[in-house]
Amino acid sequence: MLGKNILKLRKQAGLSQEELGEKINVTRQTISNWELNETAPNPEQLKLLSKVLDVSIDDLLNNERKEVLANKISNTEKLAGIIIKILKIFGIIFIIYFIFIIIGLISLILFRTKNNQEESISFSCSLNAEEYKISIGSANYFSCPTCSNELQVKLKELTNYQNISASKNNIENYFTSLNGYCE
Predict the structure, then answer these.
(1) Please, what is the average pLDDT of the chain?
(2) Which of 18, 58, 102, 151 makes an SS bond possible with 147, Cβ 3.0 to 4.6 Å?
(3) How many structural domains comprise the chain?
């Protein structure tokens, strides 16, 4: 490649092999050998060639430092662009994830609030001329202050705190089976 550059630059300068050889103190045959890539100039001769042909040694040797540097800069810019795109995608995913967490937390709070609303019922039952005031609540609440311990145990067994209406029906049926009634 050096030989082709010497030939091209020599012709651009309008010099013959002999004229170029005279300017850098070598023979026409040496210039010919360089142009045919049979031999190469030493570092001192390269310096003289670059001065006579008015080019840098890098241009003479066709060192593409500028292109390499430009390619490195271009590749760095491309990499930076890719990294920015990836960061944008991660940012969007994070924001969506954050929104879902907030929606989930709000839903959980609303669900708990709705489910924590305590359902309760109070009613009266009579048996053998005795009246019993019974109260049942969904938070495992049971009250029958006038009931004996045995009756309280039996009524609690009939109580399903997750279904207060069914519990009331169970207790009413129990009192009816014993010839009592509930209101």
Answers:
(1) 89
(2) 151
(3) 2
* Strand partners of residue 141: 137
Q: What are phi and psi of 133, to 5 degrees?
A: -95, 120
- pLDDT single digits (tens) 18-69: 999 999 999 999 999 999 999 999 999 999 999 999 998 887 887 656 666 6
pLDDT at position 115: 55
Q: How large is the average pLDDT for residues 95-119? A: 81
**What's the rounded Cα separation, in Å, for the pair 98 and 89?**
14
**Containing domain of residue 35, as a range?**
2-60
Q: Is residue 152 part of a domain?
A: yes
**Final residue belonging to a domain, choices 60, 78, 99:** 60
